[in-house]
Amino acid sequence: MNIFMGVPTFQNLLFIFFFFLFTISGKTDGAGPAGPDDECKPIRCKHNGPVIRFPFRLRDRQPTHCGYPGFELSCTADKENSTVLELPRSVKLLVKNINYKNQQIQVYDPNMCFLRQILNLNISASPFQFPFIYELESFIIFNCSSGYDYYYGLISCLSNHDYKIIAKPYKTETSYWELSSCKKMLDIPSVPDFIIYDYNQNIPTSLEWSKPMCAKCEAQGMECVLDRNSSLATQTKCLYIPKHSTSAGKSRKLVITGIILCSFLLVLVGIGIYRLHSTNKIEKENRQKIEKFLQDYRDLKPTRYSYADIKRITNQFKEKLGQGGYGTVFKGRISNDVIVAVKILNNFKGHGDEFINEVGSMGTIHHVNVARLVGFCADGEQRALVYEFLSNGSLEKYIFSADGLGQRQSHSLGYDKLQDIALGIAKGIDYLHQGCDQRIIHLDIKPHNVLLDQNFIPKISDFGTAKLCSKEQSAVSMTAARGTMGYIAPEVLSRNFGNVSHKSDVYSFGMLLLEIVGGRKNIDVNVDNTSQVYYPEWVYKHLNKEEDPGMGIVEEGQFKIIKKLIIVGLWCIQWYPVNRPSMNKVVRMLEGDENDLVMPPNPFASADSSKRSSTALKRPMHSALEIISESD
Ligand SMILES: *[C@@H]1O[C@H](CO)[C@@H](O)[C@H](O)[C@H]1NC(C)=O
Ligand SMILES: *[C@@H]1O[C@H](CO)[C@@H](O)[C@H](O)[C@H]1NC(C)=O
Ligand SMILES: *[C@@H]1O[C@H](CO)[C@@H](O)[C@H](O)[C@H]1NC(C)=O
Ligand SMILES: *[C@@H]1O[C@H](CO)[C@@H](O)[C@H](O)[C@H]1NC(C)=O
Q: Fewer CB near the last or first residue (10 Å), C or N of the chain?
């Protein structure tokens, strides 16, 4: 394309003209023999069903060469005319949607028991895989004959009065499970955990294919077809195919070619004249563009300030915003319109970690729901962090009433807004967990660390306790418990309950959700709480009875939001990390309809049960959790 860069000469223009003339006529003439046979043209089972085309074929109506081996669809014979994906071992799944560009197909089980299909199917022997975005877990399936009341891993759609089918995550310890009357059925490797747990049986699951690789061809607007000339049965090629020409289309094509050629000539002449006049101007503009880009790029990375800069920015530490164990926060101004909050770390020796964490993790990330680190100061003994200033302060202010007891009046924001805030926080955490090349685990999610901007958009802040780990790593190593009592996940306190991972943030987020709904602290650390009702447990008991959860008088629309937030919250505070949904899943649950959500198992399995294994699944009294490390 360097022809376009210089000043166009007459030869160049002539060359381009003939080049295009040649390509266009080549393409139009080539339509005949290379075009798709009519028998392979795109088809649907019903008018609003997914389009069926290569690599798929409709088995009964299109010959084998129309599709890639293993990509067979059929239509149901009933009046629904649904599209069916046929997999090996006569597994049949209904198709909701096919995305040819992303190479994904959304499927669901007509009987809302996806696992039944997975048990039959060996997914690694099919051309489809679960997308990497799902959290994949391996499970062992047991067939149990006892009357034991299983909470965890029960596959209710496969169980009945006489026997229960249980899925035990491969990673959990067998001693926690009551398996004395169980027979092992099989292992299922690497499936998304929501397929196992009932709460998601009716939401379509995505499968993706990596072969044939037609995405690039699709993106260019060309057509992927099987290369019938090749000796390989699975060789594809990418063809330019004008949309199904007929004899009437032939003459239209001539006219179109004419129009294209004429406009092309006009454009060429235009470009030529324009180029001659504006080469200099463009060069100047380009230089400016690059300057601007470099400026913006510099702004994206946190700036390093000297201590003198910090003094100037905060106007000699004039306006104090807050005070904590870590240091003091001052309001500052970088320019007329950029207001910042400057956190001066008191004693940098004790906060070396915090400082490195914050600059290291926050300096590289940019998300609407994560507070932005504008700059930092490391000048001699002085350490300071400069954040964007968020005018509405912390979420804590809005969900807890002043006396810490009041319930309803604290919701000055209204439930719709609170739902938006919850979703924003979930998206922020999900972003941190997905990471670019590193996951960021925050480990201190709580209302105090969520700040609100002038539009009440939530931003996650305070990365002093955060941990960075690679994407492949499923657990992080920790020497001491971090976080805040009331939000800290059980495995962070004791490794007996599992590894510390991104699921530990899910737990804290669940506690935060329940506090948003309840407008009160789940645990009041200032009160001797042995006699106090543990609020999340109280909510679970009341919601499970399908009664009004005693939330006072709320409108029906509001009640739906409350119920949704509570159910998602209870899923998040499941005792074992493996039973908690991933943050990505939480986002989808919050965005979805509350009727699609299933009640989670009781996270507070009763303490008075005499059954053996239930003691292992029991939540120890929270008062027994001793390690408290308030971060501020
Ligand atoms: C299903 O297909 C049959 C035959 O192709 C057609 O008559 C009927 O209208 C279709 N039903 C729907 C709901 O599209
Ligand atoms: C599943 O398929 C893979 C690949 O074809 C094969 O190696 C494996 O043994 C199969 N597993 C079962 C349980 O059939
Ligand atoms: C589970 O075991 C019972 C008897 O041991 C048997 O009748 C039943 O078919 C089994 N269920 C499955 C799904 O294999
Ligand atoms: C198949 O190969 C033959 C000879 O190699 C060639 O003449 C023909 O055009 C090819 N057909 C297609 C559809 O590519």
A: N
